[in-house]
Design a protein that fits this description.
It contains eleven helices and eight strands. The protein has a four-stranded parallel β-sheet with strand order 2-1-3-4, sandwiched between helices. A four-stranded parallel β-sheet has the order 6-5-7-8. The longest helix is centred in the middle third of the chain and has 15 residues. It holds the Pfam family Amdase. It comes from Zasmidium cellare (Wine cellar mold). This is Asp/Glu/hydantoin racemase.
Length: 241
């Protein structure tokens, strides 16, 4: 029997999407279980109050609770470094490992690993965010040579409300981007119920979709040494791991 693998996931307190989706992704991997720890996040904005939600101190406390379960890896299933700067996630992972002795990754760092490995220079973004948050994400990717100018966003900031956006909305956003010539699309928010739709979009439009709920699970499985080829219907990045 394969060694039991425990994946720890850090979750925004108001997120009601990523936990069930993460569990479903690993459903065909009987040796893998996913465990969650929350910290307070309510609003996605660039105000001082909203940015303070991602202070590493309380995130490390949540990570320590995951360490109590002897998880093999800790992942931050969130996209905050998209607007805070990617170095924020690098610092967070280093601090998690220093505090717990457990390797760490994030949705965005995992996404960036895939972008580099696949030699992607242009990817489109699907997000629920406001104009200023979206611009910060696009600007941060431009700094590392990735063009995200083809994008669609929904001008929303209430994190819990992201879960109520219907899949049909994402279908339309992806179709619009494909019409603009997109070959790679990133669903850049772990509060959107979209990961289950990735395989459909890839097959219908002949594109690659990088969903940030899935990217952190992909990297956690990779770090844990799990063969993810048994995972089907969750898109090419998981199936080809």
């Amino acid at each position: 029997m394969s060694k039991r693998v425990r994946i720890g996931i850090l979750t925004p307190s108001s997120n009601t999407v990523l936990e069930p989706l993460s569990q479903k992704i690993v459903d065909k991997l009987p040796e893998v279980t996913v465990h969650f720890s929350r910290f307070a996040v309510h609003e996605i904005a660039l105000s001082d109050k909203a940015l303070a939600q991602f202070d590493n101190t309380k995130i490390i406390e949540a990570a320590k609770l995951l360490a109590d379960a002897f998880v093999d890896v800790i992942g931050w299933s969130g996209t905050s470094s998209g607007w805070l700067g990617f170095e924020q996630d690098e610092k967070l992972c280093a601090e998690i490992t220093a505090a717990t002795g457990i390797p760490a990754t994030t949705s965005v760092l995992a996404l960036n690993k895939l972008i580099e490995a696949m030699r992607i220079k242009q990817t489109s973004l699907v997000t629920p965010y406001t104009d200023d948050v979206q611009k910060a994400i696009v600007d941060n990717y431009a700094r590392i040579g990735i063009d995200c100018e083809k994008e669609r966003h929904l001008h929303q900031s209430h994190n819990a409300g992201f879960a109520d956006i219907p899949v049909s909305t994402f279908d339309g956003m992806v179709e619009e981007l494909v019409g603009m010539g997109a070959k790679y699309v990133s669903v850049f928010c772990t509060g959107l119920k979209a990961a289950q739709r990735v395989a459909f979009w890839e097959e219908r439009f002949g594109i690659v979709v990088l969903d940030t709920v899935a990217t952190v699970i992909w990297d956690a499985l990779r770090i844990s040494g799990v063969d993810a080829s048994r995972v089907k219907q969750w898109g090419s990045i998981i199936e080809q791991s």
